[in-house]
Amino acid sequence: MNPHHRVMVLAGVVAMLAYGALVPRRTSVRVESSPGNPVQRIILESRSALGLRRHPWGARVEGAEVWGNGREGFFLAPTTSVKVRVQAWPGFNEQIILNPISGGAALTLREQGDRDAFRAWFVGILEQQLEAPSPAWEPAQRDCAGLLRFAFREAWGPHTDAWRDRVGFPGSPAASEPSLAMGGPWRRAFPTPEGWKPFAKGAFLRRLACEPLGRDLTEARPGDLIFFARGGAHQSPDHAMAFVRPDVDGQPILLYHTGPEGAAGTGEVRRVRLDELTHHPDPEFRPLPENPCFLGVYRWKILVDSPVSGS
Q1: Is the pLDDT of residue 235 over 70?
Q2: What per-residue confidence (pLDDT) applies to 130?
Q3: What does the alpha-carbon distance between residue 238 and residue 293 come to, in Å, rounded to a whole number?
Q4: Which of 65, 111, 147, 271 could form a disulfide with 257 if both were Cys (CB 3.0 to 4.6 A apart)?
Q5: How far apart are CA 55 and CA 23, in angstroms?
C-alpha cells in the first residue's frame, strides 16, 4: 500500500471511530421530581455506537410549556395531567404522561383576612424600602426580583419588636398577622427547578410562584405584580414591578428596583404611577397589550383561590 492510500485508510478509521464515539445513536428519557416541588425535569440521555454518553441532538418536548434544553433538561410545572411527546435525533420519539406534584406549592391563604393581612404587610415592607433599604435586605440581593423576595419573605412575620429592629420597620403594624400555619415552605423558600430555595430568579418567581391574571391592568390589586422581558416573552431576564397603595387621586402606584446601574452599580427603589408607566420613554416597559415585552399581571399563588395554571 502506497503512503497516500495508507493516509486515506488511517483517516477513514479515525473518522469511523470519531463517529462511533461522538454521534448519539440510542436515547432514553426519565423524569425527575421531588415531593412538594411543582417543577419536574425531563432528562434525555443518549449513547454513541461505542456506548459513550452523549448529549442528545435535536431534542425537543411538545405538548406542554417547557423551558430548558437537551443539555440541562426540560423543565415544566404541570397543574393537571399532561401528555408530552419527547423527540431527539435520529428517530427517538416517546410519549410520557406527567401528573402534577401535590404538596406545599398548592398551599394558599384560604381566609380572606389572611390574604388581606399578607398583602398589607407585603406592600408596607415594599414602601418602606423607598426611604432606605432595610438592613436585613442583603446588598447582593438588591434588584427587582430581590425586592420581591425580601418583602414576600418578611411579610409572613411574626412581626415582633425584635423583627422591627432587625428589619428597620417603624410605626404602627401594617395589619394583623397572616396565618403562619398555612405558609408551609413558602415562608422561607420558593419553588425552583432545583427544589425549594431561598433564592429564585425573576423568571422562576413568575412561572412557579405566581398565577397569571392576563394583561388587563384593572385586575391588579395592591400586592400583585407585572413582569416584562426585554426582547419578548421567551427572553430573559424578567423585570418585575409590584402594585402598592394607590395615589391620593386613586391612580395605581407601582414600586420596583432599578437593578444595578451607574458607576456605583447599586440601583434604587422607585415609585411610578401607572399612567406615567404607560408612557415610559422606553416602549419595552409600557404595560400595554401591543407590547410583546409586557408579560401581564400576576398574583402570588398563596393569594389565589385555586391555582389554575403552571405558567
Answers
A1: no
A2: 93
A3: 9
A4: 147
A5: 9
Count of alpha carbons within 13 angstroms of residue 250, beta-carbon side: 1
Residue whose entry in the numeric block shows the C-alpha cell 423607598: 130
Mean residue pLDDT across the chain: 84
Taking Cα atoms as reference points, which of 127, 41, 30 lies closest to residue 76? Answer: 41
For cell 422562576, the residue is: 204
Encoded amino acid at 185, one letter = P
pLDDT beyond 60 at 18: no
| Helix (DSSP H) and strand (DSSP E) numbers for the chain | 6, 16
Q: How far apart are CA 270 and CA 134, in angstroms?
A: 15
Buried b (16+ CB within 10 A) or exposed e, 20-29: eeebbbebeb
Q: Higher model confidence: residue 10 or residue 131?
A: 131
pLDDT exceeds cutoff 90 at 189: no
Q: Which residue(s) pair with 190 in the sheet?
A: 197
Answer left, alpha or beta for residue 12, where phi above 0 means left and psi between -120 and 50 means alpha: alpha
